[in-house]
Amino acid sequence: MSIWDQLQNPPVQYRSVPLWSWNDKLETEELERQIEEMHKAGIGGFFMHARGGLLTPYMGKEWMSAVRTCIEKSKELGMTPWLYDENGWPSGFADGKVPALGIAYQQKRLAYEQAPFQNPAERTIGFYAKSEHGYRLLSAADESGADLRFFYEVNPYYIDTLSVETVRAFIETTYEAYWERFGEEFGDDLKGVFTDEPQFARGHLPWSFDLEHAFESRYGYDLKEALPALFMNVEGASKARYDYWECVTAMFTQSYAKQIGDWCDSKGWSATGHVVDEQVLMQQVTSVGDPMAFYEYLQIPGCDWLGRFISEEPIVPKQVGSVAHQLGKKMTITESFGCSGWNVSFEDLKRIGEWQFVHGINLMCQHLQGYTLRGLRKRDYPPSLFYQQPWWEDYKAFNDYFARLSMLLSEGTRQPEVLLLHPIRSAWVHQCGEDSSGIEPYHQAFSQLSRLMCQTFVEHDYGSESIIERHGSVSNSTFIIGEAAYRVVIIPPSTTLNRVTVDLLKQFVLQGGSLVAFAPFPTLINGQLDKELDQLVESALKPEWKSSALLNALSSTVSPSSRMLDHAGEAITEDTMNVQTLALDGAMMYYFVNSGKERYESVQVELFRKGKVSLIDLETGGVTPIEQEDTDRGVRIRLTIHPGQSYVVKIVPEEAAQSEEMFDIHRTTSRQPESKIFLDHTWKISKSEENSLTLDTCRLRVEGGAWSEPQPVVFIQELLLAFGRPVHIELEFEFQVAFDVDLSRELYVVLEKPEDIKIELNGRQVESISAGWWRDISFQKVDIRGMIVPGANRIRLKSYFYNSSKTYEAIEHARQFESEGNKLTFETEIENIYIIGSFGVESSSPYLNGERHAVHTMGPFVLMELPVSVHTGDLVSQGFPFYSGKMHLQQKVYVDRNDWLEAKWSFSTPPDTIVSRLYINGQEVRTFLWEPYEADITSFLRKGDNLIEVEMANSCRNLLGPHHHIKGELYKVGPDSFTDKPGWTDKNIDKNTCIYTDRYTFVRFGLDVSPYIEMK
Q1: Band of the pLDDT at 91, cuts 50, 70, 90?
Q2: From residue 630, how far is each of 609, 646, 668, 873 by CA, in Å?
Q3: Residues forming beta bridges with residue 947, ordered by sequence position
Q4: DSSP helix, strand, coil percent of the chain (3-state; round to 5)
Q5: Each residue of 636-677: pLDDT tens digit?
Q6: How far is CA 743 from CA 448, 694, 879, in A?
Q7: How far is CA 456 from CA 293, 564, 905, in A?
Q8: Any idea what the Cα angle at residue 553 is, between residues 281 and 313, rounded to 5°?
Q9: pTM value surpassing 0.85
Q10: How distant, in Å, are the alpha carbons of 459, 513, 911, 932 from that of 1009?
Q11: Is the Cβ–Cβ distance between 349 and 398 less than 8 Å?
Q12: In angstroms, rounded to a whole number, what is the distance separating the alpha carbons of residues 1013 and 285?
């Protein structure tokens, strides 16, 4: 069966593989239920990922039983289970087992101090005296006269990733444990292992007990002599830094990536995952040395992309895609969407995903799917893209779309002919201690060069000199890396090149290869001044620093495969408009992606290749011919490109196309609009799910003492932990009611672990019996019908706040290093509660619009009667501020004629929803997940009255927040976003700023403007 025959239902290996967060007590029935939910949603598999909140002992008997359950269930459904190699992240510490083996296994970092010395001397590496050219290493006899001391610091919570023995211990405790339990029985069913964010120093300089020997063996001199040059601009600094970072990069890559990749390969599994700090050269140096070198040893290399945005710089996905293309790796993966917040839409997910896919990724790993949202889990770098979301039933369309795309991109062969050298080694020589500011100009230049080529559709790869050293060659005037061949090599602004690279470039130029270089030109080889580079640079083309000059320099050898012209005939050159060209099954594919917010009408797309053109519809899998115009250089087609839209264009050579079944292309003549019917502003609510009110402030009483003033619930956990011991507590929540309390209606209080809580409502005891779960398996409904009074209602919760001494130790450890915090679990957690049922919610203060579709109000809130109708516009201010669910709105539209030839539905602006579904006269017309928000309704309309119904689904955002962040709606959300102190997701906020505000922030929900029907 050909690829084209599989487009409608792509096989499982191309389907998304999300991180499935195992974050509570794992139960067999619930695990199986959740896998079935994934299967229905078109998900191909999952990574079984231990995470904060886990109550089933990691790697214990129950854990292994849960893994077995999931493997067996996946096998039954034809899905692909994957392992994840850590309890939390970064990978390597084996839940603490490896660093517990002793200091040799623990992470170490270089440090120094000037005399007089304050720190203990037992971790000293060497003493130094000032000299004419810098610092001189002292013998033991001369140490008393030292001006400088180097020593190492120890992080007991992570591992020495430069040590082969240490990483072997990690493999033995985790990988071997899984293989021993499941390898023989399920070796072919398990697909592999995800390793997450391994690193060696992250902002510091790594040290290892193995480093001195490795360094001297490699370079023939004592590393101790070079240590001052790593931190100070002294004589020989460039050479010392180059050698040091080359050595630690090789050690890290060989000990971690190669050992794990080789182990997986020996078992028939795939090693996948990503390193930390992939985005900029300034962070890559001290975290991983050279991320591309690491990717070589992963069967499926990957990257991480956090937040609800894309970048101008294509560096992160392009680094991964380049290595895969060069070394023949079929699949590349992205861990995406973490931190993007509860209101991330399908349109956002698609835009973020396709921006990475057009730059070299081809397999989706969603971050993440939460087993439960109990306690801290709901704030674990949201969202959970899982059953908790109101839009979950429509997720299959998203997963089918990316499965089709994954299949085409992974089976196709990319066509770049330009190689841009990656300047990480220049970054090495500019890393001065922990100061990376000297690297920034080189990062910016590298990024800008890549952007210029992307904007002008010059497809290119990056060249890691670590990989060139192992896989580079030159033949027939092409520069070869593994399986990829390049006709042009570009040297970006650089300081140094590797000796192997220089020798290959000399051969390349001698054979007639095209070399392009931009100032400042490299003057060092392996960190040392070498005049040999002058001749190499002299042989290169040296264009001006602008896109036209770069294109001219390339044009004699290569040229773009396509271009786009707007309605004025001007070339479209935007960071957000990109193309990837692939050869597949006798055809060429052009994958065009608009990752931006601009709409381009009637774009002329010129393909510099002859043949018959068709469009591949990734939403359906259909392939449809398109009207085309032949040109001297190829063909021209016209496309309207909406924000966030992409096209896969297939072109088959003329001779091949003649043997295919050809279709007549329907050519329509333009018809002018004859009438436009705008829908009425008033809509009837024909159906809605339970409305909700989040209660996020309460009064607190400890051990029968005085009641506190009302305070945010999110602060109470820390306050109670400060007692350092178990305490009896009472929480009192208040809410106002203005609806008819005598009218029968559904009404529940929703809380977590009600079985551990004594509940009183208005002084009456409420039975703590669950009436089932709502939204999440931990959100239990307790019936409070008939217990509500007009005006103020008070819910009092009595419980025992207990956390073990082990938990208090873990909290302290979490302050030292992230690995401990990322697996943190509490016995007792204090959380918001919710009132749900049949009512409306009104704010006592006005609503004000903010940025990013935000709506602000100070509250407080009152429960009113449920509205029976609403008007076009935001529903938050019409009774639904905390609403999380689906709602159906309907109205009748009268059509007084029946002579239309075409009728088109259009949302005037994109709806403020995650999913919208249109029904006309009881028939479903279309589901809208993203642009274009239009539909052909010609066959659905009739003369006379027409019943129009719009179903809208929103997210968990207005229910779960964050409601009180000073910036309003966030596009990068972490656990700290819900508190009063800035975290790493708030890098642009002063650390002393209180980010919690009493104001509530919601996001709009509904139809911003009335839709219309256009009839021709």
Answers
A1: very high
A2: 10, 23, 19, 47
A3: 892
A4: 30, 30, 40
A5: 999 999 999 999 999 999 765 554 444 434 444 455 557 899
A6: 66, 22, 19
A7: 28, 9, 35
A8: 25
A9: yes
A10: 41, 58, 8, 16
A11: yes
A12: 57
